[in-house]
Amino acid sequence: MTSPTAPRSMPPADPAMAPPPVAVVAEDLAGMRSQAFGLAARAGMAPFFCPVRARGLWRRLPAAWWPAPLRAIDPPIDPGSAGLVFSVGGTGGAVGAALRGGGRRVVQIQNPRMRLDRFDLVIANRHDEIAGPNVLLSRTALHGVSAERLVAARSAWQPRLAHLPRPLVAVLLGGSNGRFRLDEAVARGLAGQLAGMMRQDRVGVAVTPSRRTGVHARAIIGAALEPLGGWVWDMQGDNPYLGLLACADAIVVTQDSVSMVSEAVAGSAPVMVAELPGRSRRIGLFLRDLAQAGRIRPFAGRMQDWPVTPLDDTIAVAEDMRRKLGLDGAA
């Protein structure tokens, strides 16, 4: 796949034709939904969600070991008349592979950790370190943060953020997971760096926590930044995430989330990555790729500004997928 240097848009669909439906089969996790729905939007498709929930003892076994995946879930998956399924992750992949056939094709998103020939296409990241004749690879996670959505978000959020000093640094906070840690001690260190940046570089700061950000970590960040004029979203009302991506002059994002980093680099602001205690080979490879492309730098407690180009592989993946599946009339 040839990776783009800037986001593009798919050719407009025939207004007389309804977008083709695609069933999204995945666990009910925001990151999985956003990847599948983002790919569908870029490919001109109409996605609908089919959540996968393992039942009983099957929850204790890896989905790749399920002898009959469609019997291991409750409620049953109903893709309806959709001739195309997007399955996501290992659990969604096991169910997606079982749905394949009878005229229905399956595109797997992320490494399924099972035989790749059980899918029509597999879309994964370079850092997944897989390859095959039916594999498409991208540098970034799939998402729906298109140039058009950023323009709309900028129009909506610029007036609401006008009280903050410029340059404006958006801070995207993740949280502890199985690989990295963002506890109270780490939050205090990060809060000190951000407060120091505000004092030394005279920047405005707006922080959007995620659902994984601990309550205490969020409070520590707020206590350090709000007296200096910083703004920390209280998780009430409209989510400012897309608005901050659109309006920021620079972005700081914690390293725990491939999705958040991928969405941050899709815009036009330089992106600084805040390191967290922990380790992940895959995320390390991912960040190395983006650093080599000049798109990210480590966050060291100071505002950095350098020329960047938006980096978003989702539209190229969508175009390659349509071509591989013959959806554009090409083999």
Walk me through the structure.
The protein is of the alpha/beta class. The protein has nine helices and twelve strands. The protein has helices at 30-42, 89-99, 147-157, 184-201, 215-225, 241-247, 258-265, 281-292, 314-324, and strands at residues 21-26, 46-51, 84-88, 105-109, 121-125, 135-138, 168-172, 204-208, 231-232, 250-254, 271-274, 296-298. The protein has a six-stranded parallel beta sheet. Helix 1 packs across helix 9 and helix 4 (184-201) runs parallel beside helix 5. The longest helix is centred in the middle third of the chain and has 18 residues, at 184-201. The model is unreliable at 1-13 (pLDDT under 50).
Brief descriptors of the model:
alpha/beta, 12 strands, six-stranded parallel sheet, globular, 331 residues, 9 helices
Helix and strand topology:
Elements: E1 21-26, H1 30-42, E2 46-51, E3 84-88, H2 89-99, E4 105-109, E5 121-125, E6 135-138, H3 147-157, E7 168-172, H4 184-201, E8 204-208, H5 215-225, E9 231-232, H6 241-247, E10 250-254, H7 258-265, E11 271-274, H8 281-292, E12 296-298, H9 314-324
Parallel strand pairs: 1-2, 1-3, 3-4, 4-5, 5-6, 7-8, 7-10, 8-9, 10-11, 11-12
